[in-house]
Amino acid sequence: MGLPSDRNMILEMRLLMFSTGQPHPLAEQPIIFITTTTVFIGYTLVSIEIVGDFLALLIISKEEQDENEDMFFLVRWKKGETYHVSVSGLQHDPRGPGHRSYLMF
User: Fold this and answer.
1) CA–centroid distance for 41 within its chain
2) Which residues face 45 on adjacent strands?
3) Kind and range of the H or E element at 31?
4) What's this model's pTM, rounded to 2 decimal places?
5) What is the maximum span of the chain, computed from C-alpha positions, in angstroms?
6) Fewer Cβ in 10 A, N or C end of the chain?
7) What's the domain count of the chain?
8) Would you say residue 105 has pLDDT above 50?
């Protein structure tokens, strides 16, 4: 049985210039669709790194019983292209519960 539609959300990224708050002039699409997912419940960590033309977006659910899985996206921010990168090798982290280690292939 699926989740009610009010539990779904669209995740998108808006690329703005810090100095003006206007859409970034190098972005062909200043609003980039990332994914549709269920509403995040509990504590969620979001990490963004920009390296040249690429933006890495990592979303980690810190709740053990949260129905959302961790997600990693690689975004070509100038072109507006999004790639959902699978995360394989979710492993126990010796730092204890709530810490995760990833092996990316």
Assistant:
1) 15
2) 60
3) strand 31-38
4) 0.69
5) 47
6) N
7) 1
8) no
